[in-house]
Amino acid sequence: MAGKTIPIHSASAFEYLTTKKDELVGWARKFSLFPYPFVTACCAMEFMAVSSTPYDTDRFGAALPRFSPRQSDLLMVVGTLTHKQAPILRKVYEQMCEPKWVMAFGACATSGGFYQNYAAVAGIDKVIPVDIYVPGCPPRPETVIDGIMKLQDLIARSKHPLLTADF
Amino acid sequence: MALGVLDGVKERLAGKVQEASVSHGVLVLELAPPEVLATIQRLKSEFLFDLFLDVTAVDWLGQSPRFEVVYHFYSTAHRVRLRLKTRVPEEDPTVDSLVPLYGSARYMERECHDMYGIVFRGNPDLRPILLYEGFAGHPLRKDYPKRAEQPLVRYRDSPGGRS
Q1: Minimal Cα–Cα distance from B94 to chain A, Å?
Q2: Which residues pair with B81 in a beta bridge?
Q3: Confidence label for A2 from pLDDT (cuts 50, 70 and 90)
Q4: pLDDT over threshold 60, residue B129
Q5: ipTM of this model?
Q6: CATH code of B24's domain
Q7: What order of strands is seen across the sheet that includes strand A132-134?
Q8: Cβ–Cβ of A127/B162 closer than 8 Å?
Q9: Chain B residue closest to A101 (CA)?
């Protein structure tokens, strides 16, 4: 078959590029968020809405929920945290590998929402560290997407050490 | 039809109950704690109240006796409902368990024990069902402090963002 073939290693193709290590790693990490949905309450409905077709978190690389904390790097706490659930949330967080980020999804996860009683924890940040808070009862899908984008900005700006104190 | 059944129940239980009335189509009986088990036994066998719907309590703080235990029953044969109330004092909030009559009473009595501290004599398992082991007090009592927290995990030193 006659025709012009383009050699892969031609002088005109990119053979290398220069960048900073943190920018490269941050760029890769911000578009491959694997969320773990820790879903406890009614915000789950809004989580389904934002995950599925009309809004579609896949566009941000955050589509594929992993139901093992060991395979995920974004912990989405969706709904009210009760005192009885708190040890489980702590354990799930500790099982996740670094690097990991946490999103408090909705008013209850952020601050306890309108609950102030014997059963509810007034915000998950009393138990685990939180990177991004998404307000709303429940949050609109646009709010969640805004939260994901802000988290992506945060990841892109962060340092990404290849060697840590633990390794 | 339905109210006729309730009138029959009311007549035949007269003497056992302290007060009986029909409210919104529900027969309401008030009686003393020692009468509860025997009366419900009759309600089940004679009047076919075969479905035990719920047991809960009301905390009349400041009154004596303080607690009112409230039972609800339904008869699938007559299609009528019945509410049964009994007052128990704060010092000894004990009533007889309905486990020998209705198996479903096990869990409902556990919940009522959690929330109000009512003791159901004869229930073999009054462990916490909605609360957790080590929880002190009964949160739906009116004198339980609204802001009291009994966390199971130690709170982080500096709540807020990643730090």
Answers
A1: 24
A2: B26, B74
A3: low
A4: yes
A5: 0.80
A6: 3.30.460.80
A7: A35-39, A74-78, A101-105, A132-134
A8: no
A9: B162
